[in-house]
Amino acid sequence: RRIFIFQATTACLAVPAVAQTNAVDEASETAVALGYRHDTTKVDSAKFPKHQPNQHCANCQFWQAKPTDAWSNCAMFGRKVQVANKGWCNAWVKAPG
């Protein structure tokens, strides 16, 4: 029983590290189609004229974590990958509030 508890605790502690390694690949088909970048300052504003420097994933309505979290799931990318807090894509919509 002690071994089980130790293993379960260890597995729970490893979850945050796994979440960060599951980032959206900027070269993926969906990311390219949406113009996603991990860093909003790297967005091609000529290609995406609606982009503004103050727009980023953590202030978008599709962000699914606390605004202070570094990574989160995004409704545009599903639950399998995560986007960066300071990222941006063309689906950005200002979060309510």
Structure description:
The protein has 97 residues and is α+β, with helices and mostly antiparallel strands. 26% of the residues lie in helices and 11% in strands. Strands 1-2 form a two-stranded antiparallel ribbon. β1 (71-74) and β2 (78-84) form a beta hairpin. The longest helix has 19 residues, at 2-20. Residues 13-19 have low confidence and may be disordered.
User: Helices and strands: which structural class?
Assistant: alpha+beta
Series of secondary-structure elements, N-terminal to C-terminal: HHEE
| Low-confidence runs of at least 5 consecutive residues | 13-19
Shape: elongated
**Biggest sheet architecture:** 2 strands, antiparallel
Number of helices: 2
Oligomer: single chain
Instruction: For the largest sheet, list the strands in their spatial order.
Output: 1-2
The first-to-last residue Cα distance is 47 Å
